[in-house]
Amino acid sequence: MKDRTARLVSGALGSAILMIALVGVMWAVEVVDYVEDGRLDRYGIVAHEPDGLTGIVFAPFLHAGFGHLMANSLPLLILGFVAAIRGIGRFLAASLVIIVVSGLGVWFTSPPNTLTIGASGLVFGYFGYVVARGLFDRRALDIVLGVVVAVLYYSILWGALPSQPGISWQGHLFGLIGGVLAAWLLRRRAS
């Protein structure tokens, strides 16, 4: 029991440090982007353009100003922390799946030449990952975390529907799909 508690505390500390560092990098990038008059934003995902595919890697770190970044920071910290608590390796693998699925979904389904940036695909992805991880892994802690996250954040699901011009519902929807897919791909195999 003592060893399990120590692992949980260690995992929580590592998750917190990782998420603070990740969001810190996003803030640093936005400061540079601000100083450069928004020039970094062009490295986002440009729909249907072959060169726009490279934006899949960069888009989560780019934001359309500090307000956009502020809106993503707190849910990213919280949901990312909960997603990472089961292990940094699984978290990084889940993040990669989410980024690729969300990015490709945006690239294929957004109107041609649309530029998409922001970490909301990750936010929706971590939501989907945490909720689905409880369903697929069937561990008590994962089920409880999934239920708590679903109850506290269920309202974000409206963002995965086309509703507001200028907001990439595609990034939200495919981030959510990427999170569920990551939970399934990284599920604990029955022994």
DSSP strand count: 2
Mean pLDDT: 89
CATH topology: Rhomboid-like fold
The geometry reads as: globular
Which regions have little confidence, pLDDT < 50, spanning 5+ residues?
none
CATH level-4 homologous superfamily: Rhomboid-like
Sheet with the most strands, sense and barrel status: 2 strands, antiparallel
Count of structural domains: 1
Highest-level CATH class:
Mainly Alpha
Reconstruct the topology from this structure.
Layout: H1 2-35, E1 45-46, H2 55-58, H3 66-84, H4 88-109, E2 115-116, H5 120-137, H6 140-153, H7 169-185
Helix pairs in contact: 1-3, 3-5, 4-5, 4-7, 5-6, 5-7
Question: In a few lines, what is going on in this structure?
Answer:
The protein has helices at 2-35, 55-58, 66-84, 88-109, 120-137, 140-153, 169-185, and strands at residues 45-46, 115-116. The protein has 191 residues and is mostly helical.
Word description of this protein:
With 191 residues, the protein is mainly alpha-helical. It has a single domain (2-185), classed as Rhomboid-like fold. The chain has seven helices and two strands. It has a two-stranded antiparallel sheet. The model has no long low-confidence stretch (mean pLDDT 89). It comes from Microbispora corallina. This is Rhomboid family intramembrane serine protease. Keywords: Hydrolase, Membrane, Protease, Transmembrane, Transmembrane helix. It is found in: Membrane.
Observed structural traits:
191 residues; mainly alpha; Rhomboid-like fold; two-stranded antiparallel sheet; 2 strands
